[in-house]
Design a protein that fits this description.
globular; about 20% strand; Rossmann fold; alpha/beta; about 325 residues; two-stranded parallel ribbon; 7-stranded parallel beta sheet; binds nicotinamide-adenine-dinucleotide
């Protein structure tokens, strides 16, 4: 079986490609390398170019008429950039995805898995996030993702597509076999900031220590990127039962366990042996307490459950930092 992975040279798409290969599925990658890296294409068939390029899409399907499913991970993903440059984000994430869907329909590919995000949700009082919550994204980035879900819902009905939106929470870690991981040396998420603080011997500033969480610090759901990747394999394998022609389905992919900032600091100390001191600070404008996923729907649909722990994610992130220069050649 073949799958087309748009954005397959990026962090998550390349992990999905590895999980496909391990499961006997052939990944065909289409990526414009805007943030993806060529080193992640080693051993994979790839087309370098833009997802909106109709000539390229026709060529991909001419060469591989047996592509069964397209997994659409191609996007710009930096929330603050999306605030500064909303038009770029709407063009890259929405307008180009419309072209992509058009090209897929024209080429007869009617099964799509879309990389969506927890950023389509608003803040909840209970902190638990399930798929019944209405979309209430708080950034242009989140809105591009919510918009594309609507576009896919309408396209499913109009063109008989099966469209499955998988809403990822906060991915951490790397392929346990270290074929791929985060391209960036210094990720800005909490784990990235902790690693940097440990390396430089500086304290971690914790903005907001009076949230309605068990220790007052913000709470997030960190899911191992390999668990995310495995979910796609399961969804590909069971696609028609999960998402029959004409249907749009959305499912959360998270660990299901909230992790506060202080709990992450503790888990990091446990795994790395380095206890990073914390410096409490006031909340920043626009910050939210956060939340965590219910993933029962993904389990009911395609039998997925997260299997790797927070500690596994931290350990694999640290192992990847060691392996990264040799994989990326820098
Ligand atoms: N990383 C996260 O925290 C996170 C969380 C939730 C959802 N997601 C979603 O997962 C997907 C993958 O994210 P990631 O973390 O791997 O990001 P990434 O930047 O590593 O990967 C995105 C990939 O898409 C490619 N791309 C972008 N625009 C393209 C275009 N027009 N044509 C062809 N290729 C294009 C990039 O070159 C890159 O390889 C995105 O859709 C993102 O919105 C990511």
């Amino acid at each position: 079986m073949k799958v087309l992975i748009v954005g397959g040279a990026g962090y998550i798409g390349s992990s999905i490609a590895s999980a496909c290969l391990d499961d006997g599925i052939t990944p065909i990658v289409l990526d414009n390398l805007s943030t993806g890296v060529e080193a992640f294409l080693t051993g994979r068939e790839a087309y370098i170019g833009d997802m909106a390029d109709q000539v390229l899409l026709d060529k991909v399907f001419h060469d591989h008429p047996d592509i069964a499913v397209t997994i659409h991970c191609g996007a710009l993903i930096v929330v603050p950039d999306s605030v500064r440059e909303p038009l770029r984000y709407y063009r890259e994430n929405v307008a180009k995805s419309v072209e992509l869907v058009d090209g897929l329909v024209r080429n007869g590919c009617r099964r799509i898995i879309f990389s969506s995000t927890a950023a389509v949700y608003g803040q909840t009082d209970s902190l638990v996030v399930d798929e019944s919550l209405p979309a209430a994204p708080s950034s242009p980035y989140g809105r591009t993702k919510a918009m594309l879900e609507d576009i896919l819902r309408d396209s499913a009905e109009a063109f008989g597509l099966g469209a499955l939106a998988l809403r990822y929470f906060n991915p951490i870690g790397a392929d346990p076999r270290l074929r791929t991981g985060l391209q960036t040396r210094r990720p800005t998420h909490l784990l990235g900031r902790l690693i940097e603080a440990a390396e430089t011997g500086t304290p971690l500033t914790v903005t907001g220590v009076d949230w309605p969480t068990r220790d007052g610090t913000g709470i997030r759901d960190y899911v191992h990127v390999w668990d995310l990747a495995r979910a796609h394999v399961a969804a590909v394998r069971g696609f028609d039962a999960v998402c029959p022609p004409g249907s749009f389905v959305a499912a959360n992919l998270g660990s299901g366990a909230g992790c506060t900032v202080l709990e992450m600091v503790e888990a990091f100390a446990e795994v790395s042996g380095v206890r990073v001191p914390v410096e409490p600070a006031a909340r920043r404008k626009g910050d939210v307490p956060g939340g965590y996923a219910r993933w029962d729907r993904a389990h009911a649909l395609f039998g997925w459950r997260p299997t790797l722990t927070l500690q596994d994610g931290i350990r694999d992130a640290l192992r990847w930092i060691e392996a990264r220069p040799s994989v990326l050649g820098d």
